[in-house]
Amino acid sequence: MSNEVIHKTVVVGPLQCNCSILICPKTLEAIVIDPGDEAEKIIKNLDSGVKVKYLLHTHAHFDHIGATEAMKMATQATVCLHKADEMIYQNLPMQGRMFGMSFSEAPAIEKFIEDNEELKFGEQKLEVIHTPGHSPGSVCFRLSGSEERVFSGDTLFRQSVGRSDLWGGDHSLLIRSIKSRLMTLDDEIRVYPGHGPRTRIGEEKRKNPFL
Length: 211
Hints:
The protein is an alpha/beta fold. Helices cover 23% and strands 30% of the residues.
């Protein structure tokens, strides 16, 4: 059996958040990145026998955490976030009201993830890369393996970058994070943003007008 990770993208919610499911093919242990909405849709994409270990969040804006409570109830996976976004996470109902949506309180954060931390699921591993700017606790996740890839949340998009006019946002810090933490990676690494199409590090070095 191949040890290449099983990777599914499920587009959820009115803001079309890319929720990523990564499954270790040998152990069927999995992680879910940014369960933003439509928990039932995400759960339908979990193959039979899959056990979700972590619910990971690139940051705490409502469109990336809206289904966390339902996913926690369905999977009993550990809820993870960078501590610098804790206050934003705890204000999910307020976030919803600002955008005309209704959310109950988000479930407790069970694990605060840190820069350079390695998260293992089955025989796979992710590295946490702290990239503040879009929000104070924004992180990207780097998947090791033969087909290395980065899940960039709302930090980096295809030929664009995240907004910095929300809680704790800082545009100059965002650009600094991207240049020092992401643009130093190999050109061929695929990037899966929190919204929109995937790209590659090299393409963003050459074509991203914000960089």
